[in-house]
Design a protein that fits this description.
This protein is an alpha+beta fold. The chain folds into 2 domains: 30 residues; 59 residues, no CATH class. Helices cover 30% and strands 15% of the residues. The chain contains 1 helix and 4 strands. It has a two-stranded antiparallel ribbon with strand order 1-2. A hairpin with a 2-residue loop joins strand 3 and strand 4.
């Protein structure tokens, strides 16, 4: 193999490996989230903002206790806000 063929082979392999790594990262991220209540800023919630709301982006105040955002699984209760830590249940 000449150096040009070797370089093309190396670039192709690097692209394949990085593509596989990216696909693996995306699939690992699926299902690795949990709902965390009381951590979103006003209008930035993913859902669950209580009666009379239509869901995402409808929270009225920062850290609204019945509004949630998706966070990485296992991190919710460690998130600190001025009103306390995040909660796995509506407060």
């Amino acid at each position: 193999m000449n150096s040009k063929s070797l370089a093309i082979t190396a670039i192709t392999l690097a692209a394949l490996v990085s593509g596989a790594a990216i696909a693996q990262d995306k699939s690992a991220a699926k299902g690795e989230k949990e709902k965390c209540y009381g951590i979103s800023m006003a209008g930035k919630n993913d859902c669950g903002a209580g009666p009379g709301t239509s869901c995402a982006g409808t929270s009225k105040v920062d850290y609204q206790a019945n509004a949630w955002k998706y966070v990485a699984k296992g991190t919710c209760t460690g998130i600190k806000t001025p009103k306390g830590n995040g909660s796995l249940k509506a407060m």
